[in-house]
Amino acid sequence: MSRFDAIVIGAGINGLAAAATLARAGKSVCVLEQAAAPGGMATLRLDDGPELAPLLWNLSPVVLKAFNIDPATLGLGAPLPAVALDPGGAHIVLRGGWATSLSGETHADGPAFQRLHGQLVTYGALLRRLAEAPPPGGGTLLSQPGLAQLLRLSRLGLDLKRMGKPEMRRFLQVLLSNAYDLILDEMPDGPLAGLLAADAVRGNATGPRSPGSVFTLIYRMGHGGEVRRPEGGMPNLIRRLDEALQKTGCTIRTGTPVARIILEDDRVTGVETKGGEIIEAPRVLSSLGPKSVLGLTGAEAFDIEAARRIRHLRTRGTVAKVNLRLTAPRVPGLPDDLSAARLVYAPSADYVEAAFTPSKYGSLSEAPVIEATCVAAPDGRPWLSANVQYAPADLDGGWDDAACDRLRQITLDTLARALPDLPGAVEELQVIPPTRIAAETGAAGGHWHHAELALDQIFALRPGNGMGRYAMGPRGLYLCGASTHPGGDVMGLAGRNAAAAVLEGWV
Amino acid sequence: MSENRRYDVIVAGAGHNGLTAAAYLARAALKVVVVEKNDWIGGAAVSRSLHEGWTYSNCSYVCSLLRREVARDLDLPKYGLQVIPYEGGGSFTRGGDYFAYYSDHNALRREMARHSPRDADAYHRYSQAIMRQCRFIRPFLLRDAPDPASIRPRDLGELGYLVKKAWGLGKRELGETLRFWTMSIGDLLDEHFENDLIKAHLAGSGIIGTGLGVYSPGTAYVLLHHYMGDIDGGIGAWGFARGGMGAISAAIAAALKDHGGTIHTGSGVSEILTRDGRVTGVALEDGTEFHAPVVASNMDVKRTFLKHVAPNALPDEFRRAVERFKIRGSSAKLNIALDRFPAFPAAPDHASFIRGDMHVSESLWELERAYDDWKVGRWSERPYIDMLIPSQIDPTMAPAGAHMMTVFVQYAPYDLEVGGIRSGENWTEDQRKAMAETVLGQIEVACPDIRDRILHMEVRSPLELENEVGLTEGNIFQGELTFDQLFFNRPLPGYSQYDSPIRGLYLCGSSAHPGGGVMGAPGANAARTILRREASGKKLRGYAA
Lengths: 507, 545
Hints:
The complex is a heterodimer.
Chain A: E1 2-3, E2 6-9, H1 13-24, E3 29-32, H2 61-66, E4 82-84, E5 92-95, E6 98-101, H3 110-131, H4 144-162, H5 165-174, H6 179-184, H7 191-201, H8 213-220, H9 233-247, E7 251-253, E8 258-264, E9 267-273, E10 278-280, E11 284-286, H10 290-297, H11 304-311, E12 319-326, E13 342-345, H12 349-360, E14 369-376, E15 382-389, H13 401-418, E16 426-432, H14 434-441, E17 477-479, H15 493-504
Parallel strand pairs in A: 1-10, 2-3, 2-11, 3-7, 4-13, 11-17
Antiparallel strand pairs in A: 4-5, 5-6, 8-9, 9-10, 12-15, 12-16, 13-14, 14-15
Helix pairs in contact in A: 1-9, 1-15, 3-8, 7-8, 7-12
Chain B: E1 9-12, H1 16-27, E2 32-35, E3 48-51, E4 54-56, H2 68-73, E5 83-85, E6 88-92, E7 98-102, H3 105-115, H4 117-141, H5 153-168, H6 171-182, H7 185-192, H8 196-203, H9 219-227, E8 230-231, E9 234-235, E10 239-241, H10 246-258, E11 262-264, E12 269-275, E13 278-284, E14 289-291, E15 294-297, H11 301-307, H12 316-324, E16 331-338, E17 357-359, H13 364-375, E18 384-388, E19 403-410, E20 416-418, E21 421-423, H14 429-446, H15 450-453, E22 454-460, H16 462-469, E23 505-507, H17 521-534
Parallel strand pairs in B: 1-2, 1-15, 2-11, 6-17, 15-23
Antiparallel strand pairs in B: 3-4, 5-10, 6-7, 8-9, 12-13, 13-14, 16-19, 16-22, 18-19, 20-21
Helix pairs in contact in B: 1-10, 1-17, 3-4
């Protein structure tokens, strides 16, 4: 039997970030991970395939600071260009916010796109201030955390004022609206509008016409809207984080699933692993979502209202991973300098909305939205790693082999519309449906953000009203995963913020 | 220019809000004229006799939102306004069952328990939650929405009031309020209820008049928008105005005339005249000109600024913002004269709930599919219908023994898709007939003999609503009720206080805060703003300030 100041369940990016933040504050921490290696969704692989989440959007420098890592030494790679695929072959290349044709001419809607993109990045920087701290509500107004919150909010207010009246008003107008209207007010519908609409809804069970999709679009731009592929892939990045964490003296135990969280007198006292070992600690932080935590403590640990809120948390995953092994590390039909680009198949914003419609009723999109990037698996072989949306976790008839085959075919057919030579270059296809993602990583519904990133499930309301400050139920029990503020996206802020909130109340 | 065409204030459009604003201004002893394009007044709050002996409330059809402060200030009961609450409602199923909604608590509880005992318990919690939100929002309806970018004392004061009210809720309740404002009616109902029929019955108010589906975030607010009214203090109750909805407009018009105001019908505004950034009057279609230093437009923001103000009189940014304003038609209407009372075979004899609003949607998913049809430019294959027979309660609506039925239809797009082209022009006679067939098919679920009862039927697509009433795209709220167009964003950020870039030109219709419905609040608020800003000093002749 061993004793720690805190136990962190799950060694995904958020679990690692929480542990690092606590360890840096001099606390003894034990991280328990069910899989054989840390990384969670970032590193999940099938057989010899590439990792589940190969790209970085929003890895927060604040998080790297907790690991005591200089971002410059991390090899995060250069920002990747994006290609908005066009079924007619007139693909559009995006570098920064600049749109050109394959041959380099500025696209007709390029200036409009650049303006909108710039606006979203500015708004994203504003929201980032909120993302980098626990939601307000901790402590009394005059306590140290209370004053820190007040200071942060005043700074946000100042930032808003500094934008000038017209921009501030526009921000407050569009923040809660829908991406479809925002985009189409600025440019005609087409692959550029489709790309933005697709980015607005990726990972969520929502369409671009649903209010709230502007928020998720801005959120995606939180760290400048650049996408990167870390050198050596995500496993390499996670290894660096893991090493940095070990240097702090933190214990990381992989292959150790947790069977239950032990409670005494409505207080957490430790956990019992599936192997029957008991590890003691007065605080447990769980990267798993609240529904899974409920399973580890038993529903009786929560009052009726909290249990009801947890039960009603919306966690319906809609993205399936399809990995296509290629004969060569290039995408047929695109020039070589774009072989590592982020490819988006969403010919129009209307297309994205139409793809969403069947998923509401538990059906696969016959014409899905696809985001794909050519990456190398750890063994060096090239794969096109594709996120196919919408493929709902609660598919009618379930995710049996026939459904996976169907998705395989749909994915190939859809990509072939823009890249006709692609199917000939594919040697093997892997399908990872949301249910599989859920089973392997513990993310409820296989949802990218562990819980729908909707307006009524963000900020202090994430994952539920009364649980927004990471603590939930019995004393000493905390959430630190993507289901808490500010959500997922391999950002690490949820874990880091959770640990900060735990430290605020440390006695 | 003759002296008798000089006024203190001209109100463009005799909708209920225009009349309300005019009545308040006339009450303050200003010389007011209302100009109206139609030969009748009322806008969408109108009673019309399109079939000998029958009266149709042919646009808006039930009343609840009319602010009691407005009724009291203008003394509307004195001018003949009577609002009679109806008792309940019901949803019929294709399988021959029904869910009846009663205003009586115990009756409702028993009926809910018949479908689901758990839901009967949940309803208590649900209605309390809604009531708390109603109480929170009601004080804001007759106040100005503060401009968050402004540091004028008045805006700071209003903002302070908002913060105070929000703070007063307490942490938990504030969280609930934020959730309520941002969630979908579908998710809200799923959290409380398990029975599909009960959920479908309650969901209707969350989508009426909007271009959103039951699972679109923000529809819980739309539900609130329909619940925040009251009749004689009964919050959330709905009723009929005796004589149809036109009785409301008629009462306000009578109050207006009593205070010395005039109404000029039969010729609409062709242009709002401006000089050097200041409004000077209006030119009518028949060539007449009226002059005044203040013009209040009852028309929606798009119509006002894009159709009736010279383009060069407006800043480009403002014009663009107006062009971006979302005002989408999503509903149609059938008004039917019945030879006698239609049979409702599923309902018990003399069931009281038949006097209320009746529906035939059976689940939230059916409603969501109805929205999917609208998104792609078709009317719903199985539309949501809100069907009432007011002549059961108000005998003035139809000859003795005969009845009048009003059927609100959601969803019907303005820009109907035909052969790949989406346009309001596609609403031909044939298309309207085809839509009416779809709706009659829905009505038959509740009353199978409906087709045999019809003596006359008026079918109104969003296009008719636009052409006749003047609501752009036939949107009943003069603009979508989404976050980007509510409160300080309504109609446009920076112009939420009824004003515009043109000095002296104000909006007093539902495009302005707090939005649509026969509420009178935008009109009353606009009048207050006009009095405060324009009647101080000696600009206007009235005494009030």
